[in-house]
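Backbone geometry:
***
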Amino acid sequence: MTPDNLTVAVIWGRLAAICEEIAEALQHTAFSDQVREGGDYSTAVFDVDARLLAQANRSPAHLGAMPGVVKHMIEYYPPETLKPRDLIIMNDPYIGSGHLPDVFAMSPVFAAETLVGFVCCSVHVTDIGGSTPGSQGVVGVTDLMQEGLLILPTLLYRDGEANQEVLRLIESNVRVPELVLGDISAQRAALHVGAFKMGELYEKHGEKLVSAAAEIFIDRSEQAVRAELAAIPNGSYSFEEYLDDMGPETEPVLMAVTVTIEDDSITYDFSGSAKQVAASINCTLTYTAAYCYWATKAITTGDSIPQNEGQLRPITVTATPGTFFNPVRPAPVGGRALLNQRIVELIFGALGPAFPERVSAGSGQWVNPIFGGTDPDSGRRFIFYDYATSGVGARLTKDGIDSVSPIVSVENIPIEAQEAKNPILVERFELITDSGGAGRTRGGLAVRKDIRMLVGNVNLSNLTDRHRFPVYGLDGGMPGTLGATILNPDTEVEEKLQSKGNYNLRENDVVSFVCSGSGGFGSPLERDQELVYEDVREGKVSVEAAREFYKVELDEE
């Protein structure tokens, strides 16, 4: 059976739409701010052979890991044992999750009584236990077992009926069970929607026709990526950078990649990086590969090629076991979220000199602090999970974008939602003048966010970087500004905090999170003076910086 192009397009479009329907159902029924407001979740659909058919436009970390996750799940629960409305969950980083707070869920899809595929989703839960609230503390964590509850693939619902023993086990091991179990319940509801919609598609068109269409669009995606890669000259390109450290008074961590393009394939080798470290900041190979998939998509044709199994075939990702980007169990990995952007920046740094039109300069490092404590008014524990995104690095012909993540789909969580649910007050949230690196095109601006504690005895686990090594510019572009975390800024007791430290905060303490700025592209002396004037008028560039970096004379008016 060979479907025509229109039929292939209709089936592909419906599968992509189902992924978005699952996503909408998940976001609208989730309990936590980071899922409902911030979008820290992902969805995808698979055929009966566990091949990726389509994904929603959500987090690359989750999406890149899902193909491996689904395959591991059906190793534990063979397809012939599954029933409608079953739900399997897992969060093991060494078989796909990335870190313990990312809980993946999968359900089978039946058309009539025939198994035809699978639907999958992931959420970043608010807490999964461990030594710090939010389960992402870096310092003092030397073993995966210290990070929280580890769940191998586990059948949580059988034919729609909950396994209460497993739910009680989760409830008793997390700090805010109503949020965690609420998000898992939202996963179940969303996958129920997805399984029903996908089953309808197979019943309408027939399994043979849908499978034939899938073969075509998977092959076409592969061919499109290979054609793009074949247009790039063969060669190997290397780059290295340093993570500031892995906690207070520790040395920088070397991160290195060699990108090799050979005919119509691409290989990413991270073997030159440091050995795995004794802190919760290592990065599993699955997570590393997820952002290599994203980078390949970025340097080819982006979203014009349907995202499915075919896109992944030309890509090889490797790193020596026991190194920073391929740690060996039980190395801890809770803070690995910090590295998503850094993986892409390593790749862009390697390819930038040879293919400047396909990459951006380095982007400002976001911050991801987590606060935990007890609200004395209600007596309830709270976990305030926050992130503030910095900016996107400058591109060959365009300025960077202010306060937008370059590689993940999460959004800044509305302050009103944060203050309504947590005993905190956000006193400042603003763009930082002059934080974007100067260049022919300017780097995106960073943000500053100041948060006051309205209660005492609050634990803060900080997660950010670029306090020591600034973001790079390309082709003569200036680096972005350094980041900082400051306790009680502009007071006599002002104190600089470590980018990955754990701290106990008192009532009325203010923590100021300053993101690092993004890199510029090209010489600042080549920038159009009218653009400099506009930047100064909008407060993005100061008069002093205009004079110093762009050599443009302005008066205060």
About this structure: The chain is about 30% helix and 20% strand. The CA atoms of residues 25 and 184 lie 13 Å apart. The chain has a mean pLDDT of 95. The chain has three domains: 5-220, 230-353, 360-557.
